TrEMBL record:
PANTHER family: ESTERASE ESTD. This is Serine aminopeptidase S33 domain-containing protein. It comes from Levilactobacillus hammesii DSM 16381. Residues 28-140 form the Serine aminopeptidase S33 domain. It comes from the Bacteria. GO terms for molecular function: carboxylic ester hydrolase activity. SUPFAM superfamilies: alpha/beta-Hydrolases (SSF53474).
Length: 248
C-alpha cells in the first residue's frame, strides 16, 4: 500500500507491505546512489522485502529525493538530505505503524544513510544490515574522483554531469568531504550484519571492515567474487544472510 512521506515540502514515494503473519517488526529499506526503491522483481530491495515478509517482517521502501517517483531534483541530492528523508520515513513508521521493533537495511549509499540514521537513533533501532555500504564516498570526494567523475577537490564546480542523464550537484561533494560517517555510526551498539563483495569495484570492502571494527556487535560477510550490485550468484547469499540475521 502507498506510504508517502513529506519532508520539507517534498513528497517521497513510499510503499508499505505488511507481513501476512506479522512478528511486530518493521524493516525500512534504503536504496543506493542513483537507484530507487525497486520496481522490478529482480531488484535487490524488492527481493529483500519479499523474503522479509515471508518471515513475518513488514517492510517500508521509498525513493530518496530526486530518485524514482519522489519529488525533488537529483542535482540537489546530498547524503545529508537523504538522512533527512530517512528520518522523516522513520518518524512516519513510528507514528503510523507503531511497530514493536524497527530494523534498517541499506545498500551502497543507502547503507551509509542507514548507519548514520541508526547512530542518531540508537535507542530506536533494533538491528542494522549494511550491504556494500559506500562509506568510501567521503574519501572519493576528498581525492577528487566520484563514480567516474574527476574534479579538483579544492575547487568543486556547481554541477557535474554523471553521463546517465543525471547531474550531480557540487554541494553533494562539498558536504561529502566532511561527513562524520563512522563517528556517527559507532553510536549504534545493537546487532549489525555487514555484507560486501570482495570483487566490488565501486566501494572497496575495506569500508565494511572499518564498520566492523567500530561496532561492538557486528558480523562481516565477505562474498567471494561478488560485485557492488550483489547480483548473480551472490544474490541468494545476500538474501539468506540478511533474512537469517533479521529472523534470529
Amino acid at each position: 500500500m502507498e506510504f508517502n512521506v513529506t519532508r520539507d515540502g517534498l513528497t517521497l514515494a513510499g510503499i508499505y507491505e505488511p507481513a501476512p503473519q506479522p512478528t511486530g517488526t518493521i524493516a525500512i529499506l534504503f536504496h543506493g546512489f542513483t537507484s530507487d526503491r525497486g520496481y522490478t522483481p529482480t531488484a535487490l530491495l524488492t527481493q529483500l522485502a519479499q523474503r522479509l515478509r515471508a518471515i513475518g517482517v513488514g517492510t517500508v521502501r521509498f525513493d530518496f529525493n530526486g530518485c524514482g517517483h519522489s519529488e525533488g531534483d537529483f542535482a540537489n541530492m546530498t547524503v545529508l538530505n537523504e538522512i533527512a528523508d530517512a528520518q522523516a520515513v522513520l518518524t512516519a513508521v513510528q507514528t503510523r505503524l507503531a511497530p514493536q521493533r524497527i530494523d534498517l537495511l541499506g545498500h551502497s549509499q543507502g547503507g551509509v544513510v542507514a548507519s548514520m540514521l541508526a547512530g542518531y537513533n540508537a535507542d530506536l533501532i533494533h538491528k542494522l544490515v549494511l550491504m556494500a555500504p559506500a562509506a568510501t564516498l567521503k574519501d572519493d570526494a576528498l581525492a577528487g574522483h566520484t563514480r567516474g567523475l574527476v574534479y579538483d577537490p579544492q575547487h568543486i564546480p556547481a554541477q557535474l554531469p554523471l553521463g546517465n542523464g543525471k547531474t550531480l550537484g557540487g554541494f553533494y561533494l562539498r558536504t561529502a568531504q566532511h561527513l562524520p560517517i563512522y563517528e556517527t555510526a559507532q553510536n549504534f551498539a545493537g546487532p549489525v550484519c555487514l555484507i560486501h563483495g570482495d570483487a566490488d569495484q565501486i566501494v572497496a570492502y575495506s569500508a565494511s571492515q572499518r564498520y566492523d571494527a567500530i561496532y561492538p556487535h557486528s558480523t562481516l560477510h565477505l562474498l567471494s567474487g561478488a560485485s557492488h550490485s550483489l547480483d548473480g550468484a551472490a544474490r541468494d547469499d545476500v538474501l539468506r544472510l540478511a533474512t537469517d540475521f533479521i529472523a534470529d
